[in-house]
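Researcher: Here's a chain I'd like modeled. Treat it as a single chain, no partners, no ligands.
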Amino acid sequence: MSTVKPVTRPGDPVRYRVPGQAAEPRFPVVSLRGAGVRVGDRTLWSGVELDVGAGEFVAVLGPNGVGKSTLVKMLLGILPPAAGEVRVLGEAPGRAGQRIGYLPQRRSFDASLRIRGIDIVRLGLDGDRWGVPLPVPARFSARRRAARDRIAEVVELVGASAYAHRPIGECSGGEQQRLLIAQALVRDPELLLLDEPLDSLDLSHQGAVAALIGRICREAGVSVVMVAHDVNPILPWLDRVVYIAEGGAVAGRPQEVITTETLSRLYGVPVEVLRTSDGRLVVVGQPEAPAVHTDRHAEGGKP
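Model: Modeled as a single isolated chain. Structure tokens:
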């Protein structure tokens, strides 16, 4: 029988973790109450109400330029909320530290870059340390072994063991993205913030990476807040969505939010939501709809 042990951190409420299962905090992992954000003298959106529970997968959707990535920056504490209350892992944004994994918008690696994929993952563990490594005393060798084991664990979790020792520049777009997700997971975060991780990937890699993120939610109990342009690759795994329009937002279950009635009310213009025979959603009536798969993915990413 598994032993239940209290897991505490300074300032946290007491929580209990069963080995192999996610913690069950007494507060939402992310909580927004009437939240709003401003950039300069412009209010990007306001009045957002959202709770993200442990192990939930939430997508942030909306056309370009409405402030999807800004919401992630607010959760990281980079940009303060202009209104309302925002709590992340029970604390003010910016105070959760290593309990959050973050993957910024996709960056490309030069094909000539020789650093190995596994070294990219290691940067998530010790990339904040500077200087030339010194000889490690014997008493620290256990710590080094634990770090090596953790890196191998997350590389296997994302299915990248076969190419992790290959130079990152020689990896395909989908392979690189898996290694970057491993980097964000290596410190065992409770919350994973992903900013358009499927952008520039072809359709097959979008589906594979989306399935990976969904599996991480379910099996590792990690909560995910993901900015997305196209909802369809992640739709089967979503628990809820935040749909942002110019100045406003609405949150809820996908079947409640991505509807003709809800989006027409949010945008203040007629919007029609269609479902194709294969279950994909198409939003018609407003530009850059996140449910519309556009040609910008057709040539993106290496196969």
